[in-house]
Amino acid sequence: MDSFEEFDLSEETLEGLRDCAIYKVPSPIQTKAIPAAIEGRDVLAAARTGSGKTLAFVIPILELLHREKWSDTFGLGALVITPTRELALQIAKVFHEVGRRHKLSVGLVVGGHGGRDLAHERKIMEKYSIVICTPGRILDHMDKSHRFDVSSLKIVVIDEADRILDMSFARDMASIVEHLPTPRQTLLFSATQTRSVKDLSRLSLDRPVVVSVDEQVEGLKHFYTLVPLEGKLKFLWNFIKTATQSKILVFVSSTKEVKYLHDVLQKNEVRVLALYGKLSQMRRTAAYQDFLNKQHVVMIATDLCERGLDFPNVDWVVQLDCPDTVEQYIHRAGRTARYDKSGTSVLVLLDREEPFVEKLQAKEISITRQDVSESAVRRVTPMKTSLENMLARDPELKASAQRCFKAYLMHLWKSGWREPELKTLDLSAYAQSLGLYDQPRIRFLDRLRRRDAGGDLPGKTAEKGSSSKSFSNDQSDESEDEILTVKQKDVKDAPAVEEDLSKLEPVNNKLRHISKAALARKEANKGILSNTRIRFDDDGNALLVEGSSAYVSQGGITSAGLDLSEAKQRLLEVDKEDQLAQRKRIKEKHRLENKKRKELRRKPGQPLARDELQAMGDGEGDEEDAGVTLGSLDDGEGGGVTWGSFGEEEDETVITEAEYEPAKRGNRKKRRMLQGVVAEADSNGEEEKVSMKKRKTGAKTAAEEAAVDPRKLNSLRKTKKAQVVEEPVRHVEDTRSGRTKKRVEPAPVNVQADEDLALRLLRG
Ligand SMILES: Nc1ncnc2c1ncn2[C@@H]1O[C@H](COP(=O)(O)OP(=O)(O)OP(=O)(O)O)[C@@H](O)[C@H]1O
C-alpha cells in the first residue's frame, strides 16, 4: 500500500496523519492490521520492534469511535493496556498527534509515585473516550472503586501482549478481563508471538485475524563479546569513552547495578542518565525526556525500558548482562534501529553464557562474535582516581558497590546459576573490579547452603506458586529475600501459563519470601481480617475487642485488615496530639521558672542559693526566656561583657561575685544568664554608668572580667569604653519615668576605660 488514503479513513484521521508529516506510507503491519481492525474483527498482530504497531491500533480506535459518533458523554469507549507508564505516555502522544482533528479525549490512568489519586483517575475513566492504562492501576480501580463502570467499552487493546499475558501477570490479567464487558473488540499487539491458544482463550477473542509480519530488520546489526566478570566495568568505561559521539542505551540486570554504575561514572565526570522503576516519577520522566531529546548521551537502564519505548536515533544498545530470554534480547535490541533507521546491538557475555548465542541463532538472529582487546577489559585503570580510593572516601558509594555485587549474583542465581557454576567465577576479582577491598558476604548463598545441609529457611513466610512480580514494580528490582522466585523462562521452552505454574510447583516449593507489608496489602485487598484480636466469653462466644482494626462501633465487622492510608492518618493525628502536649509542658515549665524568678526578685540583695541558680539554669536551650540576645555575647564559653543599652527595666536582681563564681563553672546557659554586666558611656563620655541588666548581675568590673578571661582583653581594647563597676549596687530614686519610685540600680561610676588596669591584673 502506497499511502494512508487507500484505507477507508475519515477526513479527520487523514488530516491528522498529514499534520504529522512523518506518516506517509503505511508500514507492513499497518497495512495488514488496520483494515481488519476497522472491520470490527479481533486482531492478533505480531511484528518486529519499531515497525509501527502503535499507529496500527491508534488509527482503528479513532476510526471506530468516530463512526459510532462517539462523544465524551458516552463514557469510556476504548481501553489500551500497556506495561509501563512511559509507554502509556508515548501512546498518548501518538493519539494526540494523529487524533487532533477528532472530538475525542484521551486520558492516562497509570498511578505510581507521581500518578494522580484514584478519585481523580476515576473521573478520567468516566469522562474520557479513550483511556490508556497500566494493568496494576486499572486493577486498583476495579478492586477499590464500587462505581467502576466500563460497560460502554467497545474496544480493548493489549499492547506488548506477550509481556502482559506472560506468566507473572496472568492472574492480574485474568481479573481485568473478568471486569470487561462482552461483546467487545479485542486487539493484541506484540513484537514476539503470543505463546499459546490457552492465553488467548482467556481473553475471549472471537475468531481473531492473525497478522504477522516477519520482516528482517536490515538496519540492525548484532554482535556479542566475551568479557570476564571482573572486566565488565572497564569494558563499559572504555566503550563509553570510545563512542563519545553516539547515543548509547546500556541494559543491566538490576536497579542496584544501575545505581552503582551511574554513581561511579558520574563521579568520574562521565555524564550518564539512569532509568529504573524505583526512581521517583519526576526523575524518571526527566531521564526519559533527556534521553529522548539528546543526541549524544548514555543511559543505563533496567528492563523497565526494554519494551516499546521509542527513543529516536539510538546508535548502540549494550546488554551488559545476559538477558534471561531470547524475547528479552529482542526487545532490548529493538530500542535501536527503529523503523527505517540503523543501529547496533552489543551483547556482553561471560564464557559460560556463550550458549545463549545458539538460542538467538535458532531464532534466525544473525549475531557475530567481536573480540575486544585485552586492554579494554583487563589492564587499564580507567578511572580518574582508583576506585578503591574513591570508595574508601565515600561510604555511600561503597555500600552501593556492595549492593551491586550482591544483586548481580542474585541475578545469576535467578538465571539458573548454582553453586558449582558460581564457583567458576572469580568473585574476589569481581569485588575488586567494583572497588571493593573485601568480597561482600552473600547471605542468600549461606542460607541456601544451610538449607542444602538439611536445615530449613529460618523464619520466613512462604507462598506457593504465586506470581512473582507486579506490573507496577520494576522488573529487575529485587531484594535478597526474593531469591527463590523463578524468573521467566525462555519463551521457546515455556508451555502455556497453567502448565508453567504446575511445572514450577516443585521449584516454588523452595518457598518465596514476602515482606510483611506486602502480606498486609494482599490481605487487605482480599478482605481478610488481620490484626484482629478476638476474645471469647465463658460460653465460648466470640467477643470483638474494641480498638482492634475490625471493631466498628455500630457492632459488626464491616471492613477488614490494615488500611495503610487510615493508619497513616491516625499516626499524623497522634503526632499532632504529641506536639500539643509538648507545647503545654514547655509553657508550664516557663511559668514555673518565671514564678521562681519573681520570688527571687522580691528579696533584693539577698544572695542566691546554689539550687536557685540551678533552677535558673534549668531553662536550657530556651533562648527567648533567657532574655539575652545570644548573638551579642562575645563568646559562649568564657563569659564576657555585653555592650548594650542601659537598664531598660526596673526589675533587677542582684547577685554577688561570690555567687557568680560557681555559676561560671556551671553550664553555658547559667553563664549566659549571669553575664548581665551592661555598660554604656553617654554621648559626651563624661558620665559613664554601669547597669545590671534584667535578671542578671555580677559585681564584676570589665578589668576583672579580662583578668578572668584573657580573651576579653581584645574586646576591651577595641571599644576603649570598658566600664568598671567599683561599687556594687545602691538604692536610688528613679526619675526617668517622671514618677518617683524606689528601685535598685548600680551606682553610676566614672571609671577609666582601662586597658592598663586589665593588663596589670593579668600580670598579677
Ligand atoms: N508509517 C510510518 N511511517 C513512518 N514512520 C513510522 C510509521 N509508523 C510508525 N513510524 C515510526 O516508527 C517508530 C516506531 O514505531 P512504534 O513505536 O509504533 O513501533 P512498535 O512496533 O510499537 O515498536 P515496539 O515493538 O518496540 O513497541 C516511531 O518513531 C514511529 O513514529
Automatic annotation (TrEMBL):
Residue ranges annotated as motif Q motif: 2-31
Composition-biased stretches (Basic residues): 582-604
DEAD-box RNA helicase Q domain sequence ranges: 2-31
InterPro entries: DEAD/DEAH_box_helicase_dom, Helicase_ATP-bd, Helicase_C-like, P-loop_NTPase, RNA-helicase_DEAD-box_CS, RNA_helicase_DEAD_Q_motif, SPB4-like_CTE
Protein name: ATP-dependent RNA helicase
Domain of life from the UniProt record: Eukaryota
Family as reported in the entry's similarity comment: Belongs to the DEAD box helicase family.
Main enzyme class: hydrolase
Organism: Hypsibius exemplaris (Freshwater tardigrade)
Biased composition range(s): Acidic residues: 647-660
Role noted for this protein: RNA helicase.
Keyword RNA-binding: yes
Domain note: The Q motif is unique to and characteristic of the DEAD box family of RNA helicases and controls ATP binding and hydrolysis.
EC number assigned by the record: 3.6.4.13
Catalytic activity line of the entry: ATP + H2O = ADP + phosphate + H(+)
UniProt domain Helicase C-terminal: residue ranges: 219-381
UniProt-annotated stretches for the region Disordered: 453-481, 578-750
PANTHER family named among the record's database cross-references: RNA HELICASE (PTHR24031)
Molecular-function annotations in GO: ATP binding; ATP hydrolysis activity; RNA binding; RNA helicase activity
Keywords annotated in UniProt: ATP-binding, Helicase, Hydrolase, Nucleotide-binding, RNA-binding
Domain Helicase ATP-binding, first and last residues per copy: 34-211
UniProt feature, compositional bias: Basic and acidic residues: 723-737
Gene3D superfamilies: P-loop containing nucleotide triphosphate hydrolases
